[in-house]
Amino acid sequence: MIRHRAPWDARSTISRSAHVLERIGLALTGASCGLFVAAHVGRADIELVGTASAVFAMMIYGAAGFYLGIDLPHAPPDHNMHLPLRRGLGTRADAVELLSAVGTFLAAIAAVVSVSSIVLDESAHATSALLISLAWAVGATLQIAAGVIARRKAEASKNL
After folding, report:
1. Is the pTM higher than 0.70?
2. Phi and psi for 110 in degrees, rounded to 5?
């Protein structure tokens, strides 16, 4: 993913169109992950996801996670680490990036396990289905949190 430093208004029409398509693709990927996990949980005869509205809610939540949590705004200028590397774990921008990465990883793993179970026609057990849906929900929540935090920081740095 190419990160542009130019403001949205200064980007070309092709660049803006590509960015919009990319974000829509990310949202569709997140919605697919939610759908796959919902289908897996539904196969375990858990009433929680037995309705179309619950499945749709999972798809919307997954779409929001991938839309907000993968394409984070640029880190503030003070984010750059200088050589030799500082002691410590990193900056707050690094922590937000880690939140996004862990969330994406958890949501993707939950989706892959769900799809593989469906494709291999394995019977879904309630305990494993709940664990998979919990991992997906935590992952999507981490993505959303990272996206919101990063966008708030970006807005705050613009207002300074």
Report:
1. yes
2. -60, -40
